[in-house]
Design goal:
It contains twelve helices and 15 strands. The protein is α/β, with parallel strands linked by helices. Strand 2 and strand 3 form a beta hairpin.
């Protein structure tokens, strides 16, 4: 009996020791995370402060695009001034349409109402406002610097809400121009969709949300699906992380070179043999020089040169051609880049049209702030 008691006491002592050790490890881990967050905030503040020190001039950039006549002579000064401004923050309310509207109403009635006429350091704060072209007021523009968000209790509360809802998956931080290509696809719940160069996944997530937009508590799952592809397997993990918050069974991620994307065959039916899968909607957001991101990626002011665009023209054309090949008759394809360079935009589409010999029925060009989008209907 004494041996059993001693054994029990020994086990209890070991268990307590392990629990104390585990608690100390957790405390150290939490302290380490807090230090990391503090260092991250200091680094972000330093980076933001450093933006004003960057020389936002590049004579070769200005000369090249002035000769390309991408904007009129009257608008050139305003165009360059806009490129030198910091990129404002935008976010999108995610989820099904009914759920997203509830989150939007919560933002407008609880937070945005209190921001009207608010002053910080003697200056009136500009409250968030919806992007006029995005449906149902589900995308918002915020021009509040991080330092301002921390200076007033109302703004700090709003910032905490944004962080919390982003972690929960109710909000998605996404640039305004990045939201345009999925909207132009006009996705319906029955569509079969291919996103050829999907990572990091913000557009794929938006496509999934559009696929589930009409979902209700009693509705069935959409009959359509999204196949999200990327050539880089590491970026595929980022893509999965971006899309897993939607918890959709209508997603498949593939890891292939988009320019030679393989044909997927459907299981044969009794009346027919194997049929190749073709897509109602195809998104070709191709790799590009990225000089349209110059407001965010300020290092482009220093490293830009005229040779960046021509080196990507061929791979962009191959991806676009493969997208057309797997597009269903009557389907829609959107070709988009983050580049201002006509060699990556108009020249790619012109080469496709020359090769298609009338197969493409309709094509529309939409030029946005930093993205060139082409919509093809076959």
């Amino acid at each position: 009996m004494m041996r059993l008691k001693n054994f029990t006491r020994g086990c209890a002592h070991k268990f307590r020791s392990k629990m104390h050790k585990r608690r100390r490890e957790l405390e150290r881990s939490e302290q380490g995370e807090k230090k990391k967050r503090r260092r991250g905030r200091k680094k972000r503040d330093a980076d933001t402060a450093g933006y004003s020190l960057v020389d936002k001039r590049n004579d070769a950039f200005e000369k090249f695009y002035k000769e390309q006549n991408i904007v009129s002579e009257d608008e050139w000064s305003a165009f360059m001034s806009a490129l030198r401004e910091n990129l404002p923050a935008t976010f999108r309310i995610t989820g099904t349409r009914s759920h997203a509207k509830q989150v939007s109403e919560c933002l407008e009635t609880i937070f945005f109402k209190d921001m009207h006429g608010l002053k910080v350091d003697g200056e009136i704060v500009s409250p968030p406002h919806p992007l006029s072209w995005y449906p149902d007021r589900l995308a918002w523009h915020v021009s509040l610097p991080r330092k301002v968000l921390r200076k007033h209790p109302t703004l700090a509360k709003f910032h905490q809400f944004l962080v919390h809802e982003t972690e929960k998956g109710n909000l998605s931080r996404q640039e305004a121009v990045s939201m345009i290509p999925p909207l132009l696809l006009d996705v319906k719940p029955h569509h079969k969709i291919l996103d050829m160069c999907a990572a990091p996944g913000s557009k794929t997530a938006q496509l999934l949300e559009l696929l589930h937009a009409e979902d209700t508590a009693t509705s069935t799952m959409p009959s359509g699906f999204v196949i999200a592809n990327d050539k880089d397997h590491k970026r595929c993990y980022i893509l999965l992380h971006q899309t897993k918050r939607i918890n959709s069974p209508c997603l498949m991620v593939t890891n292939h070179d988009a320019s030679v994307y393989p044909t997927i065959y459907l299981e044969p039916k009794a009346s027919a043999g194997r049929q190749p899968l073709v897509y109602d909607r195809v998104l070709c957001d191709v790799p590009c020089s990225g000089d349209g991101t110059i407001r965010k990626n300020i290092i482009m002011w220093k490293k830009w040169n005229p040779t960046l665009g021509p080196g990507l023209h061929r791979v962009q054309l191959r991806i676009l051609c493969r997208g057309i090949e797997v597009l269903a008759s009557g389907g829609r394809l959107v070709y988009s880049t983050c580049s201002l360079n006509p060699i990556e935009d108009e020249a790619v589409v012109a080469a496709l049209l020359a090769m298609s010999k009338g197969v493409i029925a309709h094509m529309v060009c939409v030029i946005c702030a930093r993205v060139c989008v082409y919509v093809c209907v076959c």
